Amino acid sequence: MLGPVILAASRSDRMRRLISAAPVTKQVVDRFIPGETVDDIVPIIEDLTAKGLELTMDVVGEDITTPEQATHARDAYLALIDHLKDLRLGERVEMSVKLSMFGQALEGGHELALANVRPVVEAAAAIGTTVTLDAEDHTTLDSMFAIHEELRKDFPQTGCVIQAYLFRTEADARRLAAAGSRVRLVKGAYKEPASVAYQDKHEIDKAYVRILRILMEGEGYPMIGSHDPRLIAIAQELAHRAGRKLDEYEFQMLYGIRGEEHLRLAAEGHRMRVYTAYGTDWYGYFMRRLAEKPANLRFFARSMLTKG
Asked: Is 264 labeled as catalytic in the residue annotation?
Protein backbone atom coordinates (compact mmCIF):
# COMPACT_ATOMS: atom_id res chain seq x y z
CA MET A 1 0.00 0.00 0.00
CA LEU A 2 1.37 3.38 -1.01
CA GLY A 3 -0.52 5.36 1.63
CA PRO A 4 1.77 4.49 4.59
CA VAL A 5 4.85 5.17 2.44
CA ILE A 6 3.57 8.63 1.53
CA LEU A 7 2.66 9.39 5.13
CA ALA A 8 6.18 8.43 6.18
CA ALA A 9 7.51 10.79 3.51
CA SER A 10 5.37 13.57 4.96
CA ARG A 11 7.58 13.45 8.07
CA SER A 12 10.87 13.42 6.14
CA ASP A 13 12.80 16.68 5.96
CA ARG A 14 14.69 15.35 2.94
CA MET A 15 11.47 14.60 1.05
CA ARG A 16 10.05 17.97 2.08
CA ARG A 17 13.05 19.73 0.52
CA LEU A 18 12.96 17.58 -2.63
CA ILE A 19 9.25 18.00 -3.31
CA SER A 20 9.17 21.67 -2.37
CA ALA A 21 12.01 22.39 -4.81
CA ALA A 22 10.39 20.62 -7.76
CA PRO A 23 9.37 23.21 -10.40
CA VAL A 24 5.94 21.72 -10.89
CA THR A 25 5.06 21.40 -7.20
CA LYS A 26 3.40 24.80 -6.81
CA GLN A 27 1.12 24.15 -9.79
CA VAL A 28 -0.02 20.87 -8.28
CA VAL A 29 -0.29 22.18 -4.71
CA ASP A 30 -2.48 25.02 -5.97
CA ARG A 31 -5.06 22.41 -6.92
CA PHE A 32 -5.58 21.60 -3.25
CA ILE A 33 -4.43 24.79 -1.50
CA PRO A 34 -5.58 27.87 -3.45
CA GLY A 35 -3.78 30.53 -1.41
CA GLU A 36 -1.28 31.35 1.31
CA THR A 37 -2.98 34.32 3.01
CA VAL A 38 -6.47 35.40 4.00
CA ASP A 39 -6.44 37.96 1.19
CA ASP A 40 -5.59 35.19 -1.29
CA ILE A 41 -8.50 33.08 -0.15
CA VAL A 42 -11.26 35.73 -0.03
CA PRO A 43 -12.00 35.51 -3.81
CA ILE A 44 -12.27 31.71 -3.48
CA ILE A 45 -14.74 32.07 -0.61
CA GLU A 46 -16.82 34.56 -2.57
CA ASP A 47 -16.80 32.42 -5.72
CA LEU A 48 -17.80 29.17 -4.03
CA THR A 49 -20.53 30.70 -1.89
CA ALA A 50 -21.93 32.48 -4.96
CA LYS A 51 -22.30 29.02 -6.55
CA GLY A 52 -24.47 27.81 -3.67
CA LEU A 53 -21.70 25.97 -1.84
CA GLU A 54 -20.66 26.25 1.79
CA LEU A 55 -17.11 26.02 3.11
CA THR A 56 -15.07 24.85 6.03
CA MET A 57 -11.73 26.65 6.26
CA ASP A 58 -8.46 25.11 7.43
CA VAL A 59 -5.36 27.20 8.09
CA VAL A 60 -2.70 24.58 7.35
CA GLY A 61 0.20 24.07 9.72
CA GLU A 62 2.41 21.29 11.02
CA ASP A 63 5.02 20.61 13.68
CA ILE A 64 4.09 23.10 16.38
CA THR A 65 7.02 22.98 18.81
CA THR A 66 6.55 26.10 20.97
CA PRO A 67 3.66 27.82 22.76
CA GLU A 68 4.39 30.91 20.65
CA GLN A 69 3.71 28.97 17.45
CA ALA A 70 0.43 27.74 18.92
CA THR A 71 -0.56 31.32 19.73
CA HIS A 72 0.28 32.32 16.16
CA ALA A 73 -2.02 29.56 14.87
CA ARG A 74 -4.83 30.83 17.10
CA ASP A 75 -4.32 34.37 15.80
CA ALA A 76 -4.42 33.18 12.18
CA TYR A 77 -7.90 31.78 12.75
CA LEU A 78 -9.03 34.94 14.52
CA ALA A 79 -7.85 36.96 11.50
CA LEU A 80 -9.87 34.68 9.23
CA ILE A 81 -12.97 35.21 11.35
CA ASP A 82 -12.51 38.99 11.12
CA HIS A 83 -12.53 38.71 7.34
CA LEU A 84 -15.63 36.51 7.34
CA LYS A 85 -17.35 39.08 9.51
CA ASP A 86 -16.53 41.80 6.99
CA LEU A 87 -17.80 39.61 4.14
CA ARG A 88 -20.99 38.81 6.08
CA LEU A 89 -20.52 35.15 5.22
CA GLY A 90 -20.32 33.73 8.72
CA GLU A 91 -23.35 31.52 8.27
CA ARG A 92 -21.91 29.97 5.09
CA VAL A 93 -18.34 29.39 6.21
CA GLU A 94 -17.18 27.46 9.26
CA MET A 95 -13.68 26.52 10.43
CA SER A 96 -11.86 23.26 10.98
CA VAL A 97 -8.98 23.16 13.44
CA LYS A 98 -6.35 20.60 14.36
CA LEU A 99 -5.63 20.80 18.06
CA SER A 100 -2.00 19.92 17.40
CA MET A 101 -1.70 23.40 15.86
CA PHE A 102 -2.95 24.87 19.14
CA GLY A 103 -0.26 23.14 21.19
CA GLN A 104 -1.87 19.81 22.07
CA ALA A 105 1.41 17.88 21.76
CA LEU A 106 3.42 20.25 23.96
CA GLU A 107 3.95 19.95 27.71
CA GLY A 108 0.60 20.73 29.33
CA GLY A 109 -0.79 20.50 25.81
CA HIS A 110 -4.38 19.56 26.66
CA GLU A 111 -4.93 22.70 28.72
CA LEU A 112 -2.93 24.82 26.25
CA ALA A 113 -4.94 23.62 23.26
CA LEU A 114 -8.22 24.26 25.08
CA ALA A 115 -7.10 27.75 26.08
CA ASN A 116 -6.08 28.56 22.50
CA VAL A 117 -9.08 27.11 20.71
CA ARG A 118 -11.72 28.62 23.00
CA PRO A 119 -11.27 32.21 21.73
CA VAL A 120 -11.60 30.91 18.16
CA VAL A 121 -14.85 29.13 19.00
CA GLU A 122 -16.14 32.23 20.79
CA ALA A 123 -15.29 34.51 17.86
CA ALA A 124 -16.86 32.08 15.39
CA ALA A 125 -20.08 31.98 17.40
CA ALA A 126 -20.17 35.78 17.46
CA ILE A 127 -20.43 35.91 13.64
CA GLY A 128 -22.95 33.07 13.41
CA THR A 129 -20.70 30.18 12.53
CA THR A 130 -18.89 27.37 14.28
CA VAL A 131 -15.74 25.28 14.54
CA THR A 132 -15.14 21.58 13.94
CA LEU A 133 -12.31 19.80 15.72
CA ASP A 134 -10.41 17.63 13.26
CA ALA A 135 -9.34 14.12 14.22
CA GLU A 136 -5.65 13.28 14.16
CA ASP A 137 -3.83 10.08 15.07
CA HIS A 138 -5.43 7.79 17.63
CA THR A 139 -3.18 8.87 20.51
CA THR A 140 -4.71 12.37 20.44
CA LEU A 141 -8.37 11.44 20.37
CA ASP A 142 -9.19 11.19 24.07
CA SER A 143 -7.88 14.73 24.50
CA MET A 144 -9.76 15.95 21.43
CA PHE A 145 -13.06 14.47 22.58
CA ALA A 146 -12.59 15.89 26.09
CA ILE A 147 -11.98 19.37 24.65
CA HIS A 148 -14.97 18.93 22.36
CA GLU A 149 -17.18 18.05 25.32
CA GLU A 150 -15.90 21.03 27.30
CA LEU A 151 -16.47 23.49 24.46
CA ARG A 152 -19.98 22.19 23.83
CA LYS A 153 -21.02 23.26 27.33
CA ASP A 154 -20.99 26.87 26.13
CA PHE A 155 -21.00 26.34 22.36
CA PRO A 156 -23.11 23.25 21.65
CA GLN A 157 -22.74 23.69 17.89
CA THR A 158 -19.02 22.81 18.06
CA GLY A 159 -18.39 19.82 15.81
CA CYS A 160 -15.88 17.00 15.75
CA VAL A 161 -14.51 14.43 13.34
CA ILE A 162 -14.50 10.64 13.64
CA GLN A 163 -12.52 8.19 11.50
CA ALA A 164 -14.08 5.01 10.15
CA TYR A 165 -10.88 2.96 10.09
CA LEU A 166 -10.46 3.01 13.87
CA PHE A 167 -12.00 0.15 15.84
CA ARG A 168 -13.20 2.56 18.54
CA THR A 169 -15.25 4.73 16.21
CA GLU A 170 -18.55 2.83 16.27
CA ALA A 171 -18.74 3.34 20.03
CA ASP A 172 -17.74 6.99 19.63
CA ALA A 173 -20.46 7.46 17.02
CA ARG A 174 -23.15 6.05 19.32
CA ARG A 175 -22.07 8.43 22.05
CA LEU A 176 -21.95 11.43 19.71
CA ALA A 177 -25.17 10.81 17.75
CA ALA A 178 -27.18 12.91 20.19
CA ALA A 179 -29.40 15.93 19.71
CA GLY A 180 -27.44 19.04 18.76
CA SER A 181 -24.21 17.26 17.88
CA ARG A 182 -22.36 17.83 14.61
CA VAL A 183 -20.17 14.95 13.50
CA ARG A 184 -18.05 14.65 10.35
CA LEU A 185 -17.30 11.07 9.32
CA VAL A 186 -14.17 10.41 7.26
CA LYS A 187 -12.30 7.22 6.40
CA GLY A 188 -9.06 8.31 8.08
CA ALA A 189 -5.69 9.42 6.69
CA TYR A 190 -3.07 8.70 9.37
CA LYS A 191 -0.83 5.66 9.52
CA GLU A 192 -2.34 3.57 12.32
CA PRO A 193 -1.28 0.14 13.62
CA ALA A 194 -3.36 -2.97 13.03
CA SER A 195 -4.03 -3.11 16.76
CA VAL A 196 -6.30 -0.05 16.58
CA ALA A 197 -7.40 0.29 12.95
CA TYR A 198 -8.64 -1.67 9.95
CA GLN A 199 -5.95 -1.99 7.28
CA ASP A 200 -8.04 -3.36 4.42
CA LYS A 201 -9.92 -0.86 2.24
CA HIS A 202 -12.99 -3.09 2.00
CA GLU A 203 -13.18 -3.39 5.79
CA ILE A 204 -12.83 0.38 6.13
CA ASP A 205 -15.66 0.95 3.68
CA LYS A 206 -17.91 -1.48 5.57
CA ALA A 207 -17.09 0.28 8.84
CA TYR A 208 -17.87 3.64 7.23
CA VAL A 209 -21.36 2.45 6.26
CA ARG A 210 -22.04 0.97 9.72
CA ILE A 211 -21.01 4.20 11.42
CA LEU A 212 -22.90 6.36 8.95
CA ARG A 213 -26.07 4.38 9.72
CA ILE A 214 -25.57 5.08 13.43
CA LEU A 215 -25.25 8.80 12.75
CA MET A 216 -28.21 8.94 10.37
CA GLU A 217 -30.46 7.09 12.81
CA GLY A 218 -29.33 9.29 15.70
CA GLU A 219 -30.47 12.77 16.65
CA GLY A 220 -27.37 14.72 15.63
CA TYR A 221 -26.26 16.32 12.38
CA PRO A 222 -24.13 14.00 10.21
CA MET A 223 -21.48 15.45 7.89
CA ILE A 224 -20.40 12.95 5.23
CA GLY A 225 -16.74 13.48 4.40
CA SER A 226 -16.19 11.38 1.27
CA HIS A 227 -15.56 11.63 -2.46
CA ASP A 228 -16.56 8.02 -3.05
CA PRO A 229 -19.64 7.91 -5.37
CA ARG A 230 -20.81 4.64 -3.83
CA LEU A 231 -20.64 5.97 -0.28
CA ILE A 232 -22.39 9.18 -1.31
CA ALA A 233 -25.24 7.15 -2.82
CA ILE A 234 -25.44 4.99 0.31
CA ALA A 235 -25.53 8.13 2.47
CA GLN A 236 -28.48 9.46 0.48
CA GLU A 237 -30.32 6.17 0.88
CA LEU A 238 -29.64 6.01 4.63
CA ALA A 239 -30.82 9.60 5.02
CA HIS A 240 -34.01 8.76 3.16
CA ARG A 241 -34.65 5.69 5.32
CA ALA A 242 -34.07 7.74 8.46
CA GLY A 243 -36.60 10.34 7.29
CA ARG A 244 -34.04 13.14 7.16
CA LYS A 245 -34.71 16.29 5.20
CA LEU A 246 -32.02 17.70 2.91
CA ASP A 247 -30.98 20.30 5.48
CA GLU A 248 -30.55 17.71 8.24
CA TYR A 249 -27.19 16.43 7.00
CA GLU A 250 -24.49 17.58 4.60
CA PHE A 251 -21.76 16.37 2.29
CA GLN A 252 -18.19 17.57 2.59
CA MET A 253 -15.44 17.25 -0.01
CA LEU A 254 -11.99 18.69 -0.48
CA TYR A 255 -11.30 21.73 -2.59
CA GLY A 256 -9.77 20.58 -5.86
CA ILE A 257 -11.36 17.13 -5.94
CA ARG A 258 -14.58 16.34 -7.86
CA GLY A 259 -15.61 19.97 -8.28
CA GLU A 260 -18.42 19.06 -10.67
CA GLU A 261 -19.85 16.74 -8.03
CA HIS A 262 -19.87 19.62 -5.54
CA LEU A 263 -22.08 21.61 -7.90
CA ARG A 264 -24.30 18.64 -8.77
CA LEU A 265 -25.13 17.88 -5.15
CA ALA A 266 -25.78 21.55 -4.40
CA ALA A 267 -28.05 21.81 -7.44
CA GLU A 268 -30.07 18.85 -6.12
CA GLY A 269 -30.69 20.77 -2.92
CA HIS A 270 -28.11 19.08 -0.72
CA ARG A 271 -25.94 21.05 1.65
CA MET A 272 -22.49 20.72 0.10
CA ARG A 273 -19.49 22.04 2.03
CA VAL A 274 -16.05 22.39 0.46
CA TYR A 275 -13.08 21.80 2.79
CA THR A 276 -10.70 24.58 1.75
CA ALA A 277 -7.19 24.91 3.14
CA TYR A 278 -4.76 27.79 2.86
CA GLY A 279 -1.44 28.83 4.33
CA THR A 280 2.29 28.63 3.76
CA ASP A 281 3.01 25.43 5.68
CA TRP A 282 1.28 23.23 3.14
CA TYR A 283 3.58 20.19 2.95
CA GLY A 284 1.99 17.88 5.53
CA TYR A 285 -1.55 18.64 4.34
CA PHE A 286 -0.54 18.07 0.72
CA MET A 287 1.10 14.71 1.45
CA ARG A 288 -1.97 13.47 3.33
CA ARG A 289 -4.09 14.28 0.30
CA LEU A 290 -1.79 12.15 -1.85
CA ALA A 291 -1.93 9.32 0.69
CA GLU A 292 -5.72 9.32 0.89
CA LYS A 293 -6.42 8.69 -2.77
CA PRO A 294 -4.27 6.97 -5.43
CA ALA A 295 -5.74 9.23 -8.11
CA ASN A 296 -4.20 12.23 -6.37
CA LEU A 297 -0.78 10.56 -6.46
CA ARG A 298 -1.19 9.74 -10.15
CA PHE A 299 -2.14 13.35 -10.83
CA PHE A 300 1.00 14.58 -9.06
CA ALA A 301 3.30 12.04 -10.75
CA ARG A 302 1.87 12.82 -14.19
CA SER A 303 2.37 16.52 -13.58
CA MET A 304 5.97 15.94 -12.47
CA LEU A 305 6.68 14.02 -15.67
CA THR A 306 4.99 16.37 -18.10
CA LYS A 307 5.80 19.77 -16.58
CA GLY A 308 8.92 19.23 -14.50
From this structure: no
